[in-house]
Amino acid sequence: MNRRFTMLAVLALLCAAVELVAGRGMSPGVVWDVLGGGGDATERHILLQLRLPRLLVALGAGACLAVAGLVLQSALRNPLAGPEVTGVTPGAVLGAVTATALGLAGWESPLAVVLAACVGGCAGAALLWLLAGRGRGDAAQTAVHGVLVSAVLGGLTAMVLLVEPGELGSVVQWLVGTTEGRVWQHWHLLWPWALVWGAAAWLLAGPLTLLRCGDDIALAAGLSARRARTLALLCAVALTAGAVAAVGALGFVGLLVPHLAVAVFGADLRAGLPGAALLGAVVVCGADAAAQLSSRLLAGALDSERLTLPVGALTACLGAALLLVVVRRTPSRTF
């Protein structure tokens, strides 16, 4: 087990190194020179004030989404449950876009955007809580109501776009998900949130493992399934809101990375949850590096310096393909 964690940590460092040199405007030699204390003021600003916080935000958001997804799949006993099933992702997007349209927030004020996204995410979770009613402890009903809540919030986001068509750029960035333009303020807001709620999720590893086995077994072991599931959903909501507030709605990370974590680390969530965090960080960081490299190649081929491929577009395309494989191989799996 320790060997697997070590290999993942090395892979994360490798992805981080690739991402630092993947962007346009700086060669690997210049990046190495700046890291060694050299380089001119412009090069130091690009690397230390733009690329490094972008890298850290990608790692943190990936870890949050992966842990949230594993918590949801364990609590709801549904291998196709993801952060979207709580209504938090579309709620956070709606909050950020609405605040931007009203002039209360903007990309130049990360704190305002993060707060608006967190408020929207919590509102989405509260709407799910109200709709679920007495069926809150039922995994299937919670998942169904989550899909309905997500559809409603997505429709409201479309309405905001109709009222304020000038906010199309903000809507696309939040719906697709991107690490572009992330600065140190985003990281300083993300890491304490991720640390607190990640630790809370790890403390729930035992109850979540029992919930994966079924409510009857959990009750036989003296665990209140409804209370444990509520606490687990709270952790998933908080982790998802923090990630979406930082990078937008990265598709399929919270849905598919937990499957990899279970395959690599087994059913014991005391190892699975930290493993999922590492895997999520590797996946998002690697995808962001690939997106930057692809942007460079496409910009050269199309002779367009402003062409940028958002990381969310890459994770959505790859995630959709992998989801089809998962569904075809396990059509009736419910844990």
Automatic annotation (TrEMBL):
Query: Which top-rank group of organisms is this from?
Result: Bacteria
Question: In its UniProt record, which GO terms are filed under biological process?
Answer: siderophore-iron import into cell
Q: What is its main location?
A: membrane
Q: Which residue positions does the secretion signal occupy? A: none
* Gene Ontology MF terms in the entry: transmembrane transporter activity
Q: How does it sit in the membrane?
A: Multi-pass membrane protein
User: Record's InterPro entries?
Assistant: ABC_BtuC-like, ABC_transptr_permease_BtuC
Residues crossing the lipid bilayer are 55-73, 85-105, 111-131, 143-163, 190-211, 231-256, 307-327
- List keywords of the entry alphabetically: Cell membrane, Membrane, Transmembrane, Transmembrane helix, Transport
The keyword Oxidoreductase is annotated on this UniProt entry: no
GO cellular component labels: plasma membrane
Which Pfam families does the UniProt record give?
Answer: FecCD
Keyword Transmembrane appears in the UniProt entry: yes
Subcellular location per UniProt equals: Cell membrane
Gene3D superfamilies noted in UniProt: ABC transporter involved in vitamin B12 uptake, BtuC
Which family does the record claim for this protein? Belongs to the binding-protein-dependent transport system permease family. FecCD subfamily.
Q: What is this protein called?
A: Iron ABC transporter
Give the organism, scientific name.
Answer: Streptomyces cyaneogriseus subsp. noncyanogenus
